[in-house]
Amino acid sequence: MNFLYVALIVAGLFLLFLLFVIGQFLNLYIQALLSGARVGLLEIIGMRLRKVDIRTIVFSRIRAVKAGLDIPTNALETHYLAGGRVPNVISAMIAARSARIELPWNIATAIDLAGRDILDAVQTSVNPKVIDCPAQSSPRPTIDAVARDGIQLKAKARVTVRTNIARLVGGATEETIIARVGQGIVSTIGSAIDHKQVLENPDEISRKVMDSGLDAGTAFEILSIDIADIDVGDNIGAKLQLDQANADKHRAQAQAESRRAAAVAEEQEFRALEQKNRAVVVLAEAEIPKAMSEAFRSGHLGIMDYYKMKNVVADTDMRQSIASAGDNKPKQ
């Protein structure tokens, strides 16, 4: 009898444990069953063993079935284990179905695993998004460009885009759209004959930029480009001419200074040469007395010849003195 009591107690405890374990999943099983989105009890237990969030999977399947989407539990669990955001994907598919946008499960999960917000993409596809160009976080508040007459123009644009679901995976982001639109605005203003033409027809910028096909290779489709504001900036052409004139002036001054330095150096060379020649003359004059002495000793020069030479020198000095006195006499 004691053995029977022990067996009954053990069986009762096992039954209570089994009811406790099953009770954790029974509520979700009944919810799914009554919602028409049946999830097997063994499937629920298996998800718990695989450490899958059971509520996320069951509630996501219920939402999908209620919205008319038949997505197997295994597919939901696989995407969850892959690191995907199952509720986000289900919400996006429900929104796409309501907006009559084709979004298969494999495309939606691929977009989600690629790191893109699939729900935001679907919402942007239904309700187009407006992008500021340049972006509010940009260090420059405007897109600056210079027309051919040298006048700077500062522009702001607003780009209306719609998400292209088919190009969402691998497509360029908003930053590419902003960069391309900015480049198109700069190119259009730069090709204008003068700034007045741009100010009179700002829609011409939008038309030319739109015709450039800037949304190629991006995850968006550009619906419109609107010039929100355009102002006149500085006269860049005049500033460049002034800078060029100053540069030419400095270059001319440098060249003149170089020529002056060369002239001064040449003058110093001439002075040095003059001093050198004078020294040669002085040395030559110093040789004259020696030559005269040698002439006396050798008999080539007599005393009378010497006196005649002295008379000629004295006469020459007198004539030079008279001529100098005549030149210095004040005129009447």
Quick summary:
The chain has 332 residues and is of the alpha+beta class.
Task: Kindly describe this structure.
- The protein has 332 residues and is of the alpha+beta class.
- Among the domains are: 17-116, no CATH class; 129-234, Tetrahydropterin Synthase, Chain A.
- The chain has twelve helices and four strands, in the order H-H-H-H-H-H-H-E-E-E-H-H-H-E-H-H.
- The chain has helices spanning 2-34, 41-49, 54-66, 73-81, 86-98, 105-113, 118-126, 174-190, 195-200, 203-210, 236-298, 303-328; strands at residues 129-133, 143-146, 151-163, 220-235.
- Helix 3 crosses helix 4 and helix 5 (86-98) crosses helix 6.
- The chain is elongated, with a radius of gyration of 52 Å.
- The N and C termini lie far apart (173 Å).
Approximate strand percentage? 5-15%
Which structural class matches the secondary elements? alpha+beta
CATH architecture of the domain at 129-234: 2-Layer Sandwich
Looking at CATH, the homologous superfamily of the domain at 129-234 is Band 7 domain
| Radius of gyration computed on alpha carbons | 52 Å
Give the SSE order as H and E letters.
Answer: HHHHHHHEEEHHHEHH
CATH topology call of the domain at 129-234: Tetrahydropterin Synthase, Chain A
Q: What's the mean pLDDT score?
A: 82
